[in-house]
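Incident log entry.

Two folding requests arrived from the same account within the same minute. Monitoring flagged them as a possible duplicate submission, but the sequences differ. Recording both here for audit purposes.

Request one:
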Amino acid sequence: MNVKTIISLIVLGLALFAASLSVYTLPETRQAIVLQFGNPVRTHVEPGLKFKAPWQNVVLLDSRVLNLDVPPEEVTTSDQKRLVVDAFARFQITDALKLYQRVFNENGARDFLSTPIRSQLRETLGKQTFTTLLSAERGSLMEQIRTGANRAARDLGVELVDVRIKRAELPKANSDAIYRRMQTEREQEAREIRAEGEEEKLRIRAEADKQRTVMLARAEENSQKVRGDGDAQAVKIFADAFQRDEEFFGFYRSMQAYRKALR
C-alpha cells in the first residue's frame, strides 16, 4: 500500500467522520436547537433526518405535554381559613429557542413556572371562601389560575395546558385543633344521648310500675269481689239447704264438730 492510498483512506475516514457529525435524527417527541459555539443559530421542530455543520452541536427539548408538581402553598381564604394547597400543572414548550435562552431546559422551566402558579394560587383562592373551594366553582377557579400564570409562561416560550389542585387541607396544627374540637363535640353529644336514654328508661320503668300497680289493684279488687260473691252464694246455699231439712243439717253439723274434736 503506497502513501497515496493511505492518504486517500485517511481523507475518506475524516470525510465519513465529518458526515456523521453533520447528520442527526430528530424523534417525533423532540424539538432541536442547533448551537454554534454556544450560540443558537436555528431550531428544528419537524421530525426526521436533519443536517448541521460538524462543529455545531444540538440541544434536544421535549415537545410533549409535561408535568409540573407545584410545591405546597399555604393560602388564607376570604373567610380566614388557612389551607395548604398542593397543586400540579401541565405545560408544553411552544418556543424552544426562547426557553433555551431563558432557562436552558425543561427542569429550568419547571422551576420558573412554580413561582407564577403559586402566586396565582394565593391571589385567586385568597378571594374565595372555604366553601367555594369545595363547590362546583372550583373548575372555573383553576381556569383563572391557569390564565393568570400563562402570562408569565408565554414569556418563557411555554403554554400552560392545565392547572389542578391535588388536595387542599388544613395545616397540621389546625387539623389537630379541629379534630380535638370534633372529638369533644361528639363526646358531648354522646353524653346527651346517654342522658336522654337514661331519662327515657326511667320514664318507661315508672310507667310500667304504675300500670303493674293498677293491674294488681284491679285484680285484687276483682278477686275480692269474686270471693265475696262466692261466699255469699255459699251462705245462701247452706241457708236454703238448712231450711229444707233442719234435722239432717243439725246432725251433719254435729258430725263435723265430732271430727274436729277427735283430731
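Request two (distinct sequence, not a duplicate):
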Amino acid sequence: MRYPVVLFDLDGTVIDSGAIILASMKHAAETVLGAAPSDRELMATVGGPGLEAQMRTLDPDRVEELVRVYRAHNEPLHEELECCAGMDDVLVRLADQGHRLGIVTAKRRETVELAFDRVPLGHLFEVVVGGDETTRHKPDPEPLLLALQRLGADAEDAAYVGDSPFDIRAAKAGGLHAIGVTWGKIHAREVLEPEQPDALVDTPEELFEHL
C-alpha cells in the first residue's frame, strides 16, 4: 500500500455538486447584483478559500448578502445530490483494502452533513475537516495538515484527491501526494494540468493505480 491515508475533497470529487453550485452562484449574482457573469467566472474560485472568498470576487462590498442568498438557494438543492459516478464503489474498496479515508473541504461542517444525509457515504470517512474549522484555507495546507493531525498520520503516507487547482496546491504545499481528478467538471483538465499534480485521472477506477 503506497498511501495508507487518502484524503478527498468533497464537491466535484466525491459528490456530483457542480450543477447545484453553479445554479446557486447564478441565482446569487442575479438576485443581489443584477449581474450575469459567465459560468467560467462564477466557478473559477470554487474549491478554494471558501464561499465568502468566492463572493468577494463578485462584489467585495456585498459578500454577506451574496452568501446569504446563495445558501438559501443552495441548501434545498442538496435533495438532488448524487455521488460522483463510481466513487461509492471505489471508496468502499479502498476502505476494505485498509486505507484510512478522510474528507477535507471548503464546505462548512453543517453543509457536509447535509450532503451526507442525501449521499450516505459519511461512515466511510474517519475524519472530516470543514471550511469553518481552520483559520487558513486551501490552497494553504492547514486543513489537510489538521486532518492528518487528527489521524495521527504523516504527510508522506498520505494522498489528497481533488478536482481543483487549490486542492493540488494545498497537497503539494503540505507534502502530500497530489492527485487531480477531472470527472467533477467544475474545473477543466487544462486548468489542472499547469498545477503539475503527481497524477491526473479521469475516472475513479484509475485511483487504484496511484494509491
